[in-house]
Amino acid sequence: MARGGKAFKAVAKGMAVVASAAAVIERRRRAAMAADFHETLHPVDPVAAPAVRPLPGPREAAVPAEAAVVPAGPSGPPAAAVPAAAPPAAAAAPAPAAVPAAPLPPHGHFGRPATPAEAVPWGLRVAAESTWRLLLLGAALYVVFYIVDMLRLVAFAVLASLLISALLEPTVSWLRRHGVPRSLAAGGVFMSGLAGIGLVGWFVVWQVTTNLETVTSKVKAGVDQLRDWLITGPLHLTEQQITDFANQITKAISTNSEQITSASITGAQIAVEVLTAVLLAFFTTFFLLYDGERIWNWALRGLPRHSRYAMAGAGPKAWATLTAYVRGTVCVAFIDAVCIGVGIQLLGVPMALPLAVIIFLGAFVPLVGALVTGTVAVLIALVTTTPWTALMVLVVLIAVQQIEGHVLQPLILGRAVRVHPLGVVLGVAAGSIIGGIGGAIVAVPLIAVTNTVVTHLRRRNEAGQAVFTALEAAREAATRPPAP
After folding, report:
1. What spatial distance separates the first Cα and last Cα of the chain, rounded to whole Å?
2. Is residue 111 a contact partner of residue 30, using CB atoms and an 8 Å limit?
């Protein structure tokens, strides 16, 4: 308690010293402001100021200004008073005008600011105004994300259709440039895309069902090997302990059957929502391919008039960035899937082709997607083969990820999508927290498009400011009188 009291007294003394110093500084500041204010109201002109004369003595003050008395001679009477010679009119100095008294400010003190806001330091005022603007912007973003979360089914469908359209639209444009009608080009490309997606899904299902029996047998053999290792290995467990552990797992499953049933019902609801989102995405994709230009013009008409020209220039640049991102991501994902698929095939891991397809789909999440989906291959290799093979599969995954991060991403996506790898990782993490897998997929293209739009608008404003400055300089030069 004594130590706390001493610390409190020391803090109180320090605060008193600071307060006294601040009071002294404030008094000096007010005195300086009062002096400046008085000098502003009563300027001193040394040229126009009259010369300083000494005060008249008592005799000089008794003599009237209109006449002067001539003293008498030694023999005669005193002479009459003669008027004093008046100064010439040209030499007469005008009487100085009376300076009115300085009015007091409204608050009654010369050293005090006119309003309380003027007493607040400039940096604090800027910080306060920036803070409430940031809070307002954060509230607006929160409302936007809340609405998107409420309509996440529609939002993810639209975003997925934009990504698919960015992949297929260049083909539609090429066909239209070569004379193919718009409806035929859009319909043909759309059906080709559906057929490609259907073939990929059928291939994965076919490979899984074909190799399921083999994988199941290898999993059973792996479980038996794990049980033998637990008994004969360094843990030295007994069969009774392993049996009790298995019985506990079975009991936990039977006890939580209601939760498992509800989870299965939730899974069915999620499956219905996913199917609805897929159908909505296909429907939106077709109309974006068929009538994307008119949809964009309609969206522009909904903006304010002064913002249409800026967004009309930013829209094509954003679409070009999105197209380049989707193309580059597909190329990088294909290279990752081929390299990892070949590696796990050479290592003897079953279902190498389905695993390569899963890795291809996961690679649409930059930098981390292929590694996360590749862990499935590591687990299958661990269960069906040896731990050494699983370790080698992990080495292949890490090597491919290093090649992607240091070679493929900068070479293929570096010019089109100028986003730092730290921004990519943070964007993927934030997107996965907000929207799960769908949020992780659309986070990076959303960041890239936003970066492109902001950069275009900033350059446009800088160019407009430069043009305005040049026009003002030309106008001033035209109105300036010619030099003599």
Report:
1. 86
2. yes
Give the chain's length: 484
pLDDT in tens, the chain (484 residues): 445 456 656 666 776 776 777 677 777 777 766 665 555 555 554 444 444 444 444 444 444 444 444 444 444 444 444 444 444 444 444 555 554 555 555 555 555 666 777 777 888 888 888 999 999 999 998 898 888 888 888 888 888 888 888 888 888 888 888 888 888 888 888 898 888 888 877 877 787 777 767 767 766 776 677 777 767 767 667 777 777 776 776 666 566 555 555 555 566 677 787 788 888 888 899 888 888 888 888 888 888 887 888 888 888 888 888 888 888 888 888 888 888 888 888 888 877 888 888 888 888 877 777 778 888 888 888 877 778 888 898 898 888 888 877 787 777 776 666 777 777 778 888 888 877 777 888 888 888 888 888 888 888 888 888 888 888 888 888 887 776 6
- Contact between 130 and 254 (Cβ < 8 Å): no
3-class secondary-structure state, position 82: strand
Residue type, 82: V
Is residue 93 a contact partner of residue 104, using CB atoms and an 8 Å limit? Answer: no
- Please report which helix (H) or strand (E) contains residue 109, including its range: none
For Cα atoms 342, 343, 346, give the angle at the middle one, nearest 5 degrees.
Answer: 85
Token code pair at residue 9 = 């007294």
Q: Which of 384, 390, 388, 349 is nearest to 225 (CA)?
A: 384
Q: Which long-range contacts (CB under 8 A, 24 or more apart) does 395-402 make?
A: 396/339, 396/340, 396/343, 396/344, 396/347, 397/340, 397/370, 397/371, 398/371, 400/336, 400/339, 400/340, 400/343, 400/370, 401/367, 401/370, 401/371
